[in-house]
Amino acid sequence: MNKAYLWHPFTQMRDYENTDPLIIERGEGIMLFDVQGRAYYDGFSSVWLNVHGHNVPELNEAIADQLGRVAHSTLLGMANIPAIELAAKLAEITPNGLNKTFYSDSGATGVEIAIKMAFQYWSNRGNTRKKTFVTMDQAYHGDTIGAVSVGAIPLYHEVFRPMLFPSHVIPYPYGYRHTGGAPGAKEATLTALRLLLETSGDEIAALIVEPIVQGAGGMIVMPSGCLREMAELCREHDVLLIADEVATGFGRTGAMFACDLEGVTPDLMVVGKGLTGGYLPVAATLATDEVYGAFHADYLERKTFFHGHSYTGNPLGCAVALASLKLLEERNMVQGVIAKESFVRRKLKALEERPHVGEIRQKGLMIGIELVRDKALREPFAWEDRIGVRVAARARELGMLTRPLGNVIVFIPPLASTEDELDVMTDLLTASIVDVT
Ligand code: PLP
């Protein structure tokens, strides 16, 4: 039935039809169990979103409790209690000044909203020249057309190019693949941004960036200070900054938000994935009072933000998000990530000696291991080598789930993973890489 009726995302179905399908039946803690009863460590947090593990009593109760009241009511011109409380909580925990929450239901729609808000912000202020966006090489912001337009991963995005709006692309500071290392890469990024803003800043609405860690591009960690300097350049040139914290938000990098690591307050910030602890599809676009203010006018001025999805501000999703944030605070989990980060770093260190391990990148509990065919030359494995896919398949055989990004092996365990669990998972990860390479 699975192969007959389901079309899986980001999956070549011809290959899939020849595989032993993985069908998950239940979860408990950081383990997932398939229909045959086999157990797997959730080594990529079910695509980077699980925070507290699966089947968490507090989160289950929050949904059940809300379910007994109302499952959904619209946010178009009216409200519900969890949506109000969550918006207030987000204003409290996000960088200072982001006080207005606009809900949606996936990272991509959250990004779509940020892009449209940035565009309309300038138009509402009477500036119709600022229409374009700046993004970074290998950026990933989701799969809707606006989000793809500011995406820059050729494999995913090129086929759609003729139907997209054009964006400026500046280099991402990828120290491992820059002749000047991290400092050279950082300089190249800042120089490109400075030049672009000096020449075309008056036509640019916003820069969108995955702060501190570029996720789908290969878990690439920005050199220190880069984000802050980019934010300063944007401010100097009257260009909005959109921080896409969909992957990095809610403690994943060892701070509540990656922007906090460099004291940056963006004009717009998108959160999703971990917002509900990985339970339900809720995302949010946060705006500063300044951005919000540009939409605040007489109805006849047509400055309203005409955007909204049917399930926006869903009470079940907002209730579980509130419960997840409560656990995050009560259990001091963001602080906990810092200790876990060092533990994982120490455990993975030995992998550096392996002949095909090019670079191990880590920020908090976001880890990418780039495998290379020739370590001295930093020569990538070829597409045909399917190296990442083979390592992930071996990990699954050994009892851990992950999904590669090309030649980069991803390890993003749930934040709640204990040191013992991280110990086992890093061993399984190491064994999978050793067995395949
Ligand atoms: N932005 C970033 C940085 C992401 O990593 C992702 C998903 O991986 C998205 C946006 C898209 O989120 P969603 O899959 O919920 O649409």
UniProtKB/TrEMBL annotation:
GO terms for molecular function: adenosylmethionine-8-amino-7-oxononanoate transaminase activity. It is found in: Cytoplasm. Coiled coil: none annotated. It catalyses: (8S)-8-amino-7-oxononanoate + S-adenosyl-L-methionine = S-adenosyl-4-methylsulfanyl-2-oxobutanoate + (7R,8S)-7,8-diammoniononanoate. Pathway: Cofactor biosynthesis; biotin biosynthesis; 7,8-diaminononanoate from 8-amino-7-oxononanoate (SAM route): step 1/1. Pyridoxal 5'-phosphate binds at residues 107-108, 244, 309-310. InterPro entries: Aminotrans_3, Aminotrans_3_PPA_site, BioA, PyrdxlP-dep_Trfase, PyrdxlP-dep_Trfase_major, PyrdxlP-dep_Trfase_small. It holds the Pfam family Aminotran_3. The modification N6-(pyridoxal phosphate)lysine is found at residue 273. It is an enzyme of class 2 (transferase). Its cofactor is pyridoxal 5'-phosphate. Its main location: cytoplasm. PANTHER family: ADENOSYLMETHIONINE-8-AMINO-7-OXONONANOATE AMINOTRANSFERASE. Belongs to the class-III pyridoxal-phosphate-dependent aminotransferase family. BioA subfamily. NCBIfam families: bioA (TIGR00508). Homodimer. This is Adenosylmethionine-8-amino-7-oxononanoate aminotransferase. It comes from Cohnella suwonensis.
